[in-house]
Amino acid sequence: MDYIASEKGDTAENRDPNSVVSNGASKVSSIENKSSVDCDKLNSIAPVDSVPCTSEKPQETELCDIPEQIEFTVIFNKNKHDITFAFDATVLELKAHLERICAVPQSAQKLIIKGMAKDDMTLRKAGVIKGGKVMLVGSKMDDILAVKSAPKEILEEKNSSHSSKEPLCMQKIHQKVLDKGIPPDVMAGLKGVKEPLPPTPLSGMLNKHGGKVRLTFKPEQDQLWIGTKERTEKLAMTSIKSITSEPIKEHEEYHIMGLQLGPTEASRYWIYWVPAQYIEAIKDAVLGVWQFF
């Protein structure tokens, strides 16, 4: 077989009839070798575990301390309100919250939890428990304004009628009971002292028939229980229109107290020998803070 002459001389490449293929493969191989060398150089410069740089900063996780919450029920005028509130918030802060819900001004509110709760107490310290009940006593702003706007003549007439009446203890209807003397098992009375209601019922007192009377306050149910030997009457506190009381002459450590259960004074339920130190607490528990009459 004759070989074709080349200007470059008689090389193995020129003599090989497959020189074009061999030459191409040789060129590809040289390119791959060059790429391999370049990669080795890059690897020798940059660390293997290097991470590409970005302009974005990693997001920082913000930790927020959520105050411990407590769920309980507030009862006001037979209505129940489910409340979720910070367990270590103060009673005053709760009152501000309830003002928006119940329309009762903060200053007109009293919260009964385990007795009367003080404004600076936390809910935890005051005794609020999960699923428990808190009694709200007070008057709505509309009711307060209505009482304030009562005609002056009506107020004067009411005051004059009170002043013209003889003392309760001097009236015959009451003397019949008072003449029996102080009941032997009545609770001790204190003159000129104001105390909160005790955790136990007020006992040893008498009704107009001379029978024994016991008062049990149930703020969580908005009720006052009047117990006698025969039965126990459970009265809604909102059904009691007013409370009248006067010291008993020569025994000022005790009072005569009348609970008005109907629209007129004739509907009063009279109780005798009520310890004087609890009179204001009884009025606050039943009528609330705002008492104008």
TrEMBL record:
- Give start and end of each Ubiquitin-like domain: 68-143
Q: Which Pfam families match?
A: PH_UBFD1_C (PF25343), ubiquitin (PF00240)
Disordered as annotated region, ranges: 1-34
Q: Which InterPro entries match?
A: UBFD1, UBFD1_C, Ubiquitin-like_dom, Ubiquitin-like_domsf
A Gene Ontology molecular-function term? Answer: RNA binding
Basic and acidic residues compositional bias, start-end? 1-16
Renumbered to this chain, the Polar residues biased-composition regions fall at 17-34
User: What PROSITE patterns does the record tag this protein with?
Assistant: UBIQUITIN_2
PANTHER family, per the entry: UBIQUITIN DOMAIN-CONTAINING PROTEIN UBFD1
Please identify the protein, giving its name as recorded.
Answer: Ubiquitin-like domain-containing protein
Q: Which organism is it from?
A: Pieris brassicae
